[in-house]
Specification:
Probable acetyltransferase, which acetylates the inositol ring of phosphatidylinositol during biosynthesis of GPI-anchor. The structure is a single chain. The chain has 23 helices and no strands. The protein is an all-alpha fold. Helix 8 crosses helix 21. The radius of gyration is 23 Å and the shape is globular. The two termini are about 30 Å apart.
Length: about 500
């Protein structure tokens, strides 16, 4: 890449100030809105069963292209796009009765709370949950779309990563990726908890953590070598001279292994990891403001302190990302278990309570809690502290956590509304496959591998194409083709029943 073009591309993503949280919420709302349309087609018409080429194209347009359009062509009109997607869903819901409801009217089965508990006792303790897959898959698609779209002029600069203070779509995406990783990391802790296994030794936990970290660290070094070796445009103030996002992900498991040595004090896993996340976030914020670390990270001399100074952003922000990862784990503790497991674990649950309502209650309570905590620190409602992705400070951590818990709540409400009655009547008896778009399932199944492919393709496109000179429709064409390749890799791996472990 020519030096002048490299500097132009670096300037294109530098010194940005972001946009408003309300606009970000509208743009990202396309993910739950497209799930509503998918659910309407599936529950009313069984459109995606059986699944063939036509269904795959419709799936791709709905769960990949629509998300891309919300951040590009419709970036100024996200509400209009959401309404256009929602309109056919409303028509279907008003005009057609779901098949499972028709069957209910004919059979008129009797349901009570005891029968619900009885039916769910055969569930696995940690089942695959449609709304979790849709949430993680949608997050991965919008992340993959943004990492290339940001290099084109059609992608608004207010959506790109902020230089110092403020909020943007891509700032949210980075934190959401970490939160989502924490969410699924709760699975192993829950397995040990339900099996009533004694806590592993620190040495055993560190060995397991290093096995998880090693591939990520290798990817980090590979990306570093590629960026430095090809002269690829890089935004140094994002993470530092050598640090990148793979290093942040790679160092999280060992730190988590150390934190798991802290005595639980009889706390349940959700409370424990919530307190840990808040503790890390609060202590880090105090350190930022009381030691001069904040000023050094933002305006300090990078040549000071050797490698530490050269990578001051990535090293400092790691504490904030650890807090986000822990809050994701705390959320996973009540989201991942089956209704049976959650009911068994809660001593206050009575046989007259629908166990699935417990999850909805928890999601609503925790969504409200995280929103209120964010409000207490925000510049408008509380302590007048502005979020900073570069620092990963306390308001940034609380914003990311609040957003993701609200998104999970939205996806769960959609699943409950459209599919709850189809648990026994889903085609082939596979409720999960019936309620999850195949594209999102495939992307989620090999999430890290898909993310790696997206990064490689992003680099390839930038080397081959001068993205700054591509017009609107040309950019959309390139981005749709790019997402098509990413989705094709994910669906191809899933079709061959391959899970890539990185």
């Amino acid at each position: 890449m020519a030096p002048s073009l490299k500097s132009q591309k670096e300037d294109f993503v530098s010194n940005l100030t972001g946009g408003t949280i309300s606009e970000i919420n509208l743009v990202t709302a396309v993910a739950p809105v497209t799930y509503i349309l998918f659910a309407a087609f599936q529950s009313r018409l069984h459109f995606f069963h059986p699944y063939g080429p036509v269904q795959l194209v419709a799936d791709f347009l709905l769960n990949a292209v629509a998300i891309l359009l919300s951040t590009t062509l419709y970036s100024k009109f996200p509400l209009l796009l959401n309404l256009l997607i929602l309109l056919p869903a409303i028509i279907l819901c008003v005009g057609i009765t779901p098949a499972h409801q028709k069957a209910k009217r004919l059979a008129k089965p009797k349901h009570d709370a005891s029968s619900i508990v009885t039916k769910t006792t055969s569930e696995p303790l940690l089942p695959k949950k449609p709304f979790v897959t849709v949430y993680r898959g949608s997050m991965m698609v919008i992340t993959c779309a943004a990492i290339l779209a940001v290099d084109f002029k059609i992608f608004p600069r207010r959506f790109a990563k902020v230089e110092n203070w403020g909020t943007s779509l891509m700032d949210l995406g980075v934190g959401s990726f970490v939160f989502s990783s924490g969410l699924v990391s709760a699975r192993q802790v829950l397995k040990d908890h339900f099996a009533k296994k004694a806590a592993s030794s620190l040495l055993a936990r560190m060995k397991g953590a290093m096995r998880s970290s090693l591939p990520l660290l290798v990817l980090g070094f590979v990306r570093l070598a590629m960026v430095k070796g090809t002269g690829y445009a890089e935004h140094v103030t994002e993470y530092g001279v050598h640090w990148n996002f793979f290093f942040t992900l790679g160092f999280l498991p060992p730190l988590l292994a150390l934190l798991q040595s802290i005595p639980t004090g009889g706390l349940n896993p959700t409370a424990l990891y919530t307190l840990l996340s808040l503790g890390v976030g609060l202590v880090y914020q105090v350190v930022l403001e009381s030691t001069g670390l904040q000023a050094y990270v933002l305006i300090g001399d990078r040549s000071k302190f050797g490698l530490l100074g050269m990578n001051k952003e990535g090293i400092s922000s790691f504490a904030g990302y650890l807090a986000i990862f822990l809050s994701g784990m705390a959320t996973g503790m009540y989201v991942l278990p089956s209704a049976t497991a959650a009911t068994t674990a809660a001593a206050t649950t009575t046989t007259t309570t629908n166990p699935r309502n417990r999850l909805l209650k928890n999601l609503l309570i925790w969504s409200t809690t995280w929103i209120c905590l964010f409000a207490t620190t925000s510049e408008y409602w509380g302590l007048n502290v502005t979020p900073s992705r570069r620092l990963a400070n306390l308001p940034y951590f609380l914003w990311v956590t609040a957003f993701n818990t609200v998104q999970l709540t939205a996806f769960y409400l959609i699943e409950r509304f459209f599919f709850d009655g189809a648990r026994e009547s889903a085609p082939g008896g596979n409720y999960y496959a019936f309620a999850v778009p195949r594209v999102l399932h495939a992307v989620n199944r090999n999430g890290l591998a898909v993310f790696l492919v997206a990064n490689l393709l992003t680099g390839l496109v930038n080397v081959v194409v001068n993205t700054l000179e591509v017009g609107r429709m040309g950019a959309v064409g390139v981005l749709v083709a790019y997402l098509g390749v990413v989705v094709a890799v994910a669906v191809g791996l899933d079709w061959r029943d391959v899970s890539v472990k990185l």
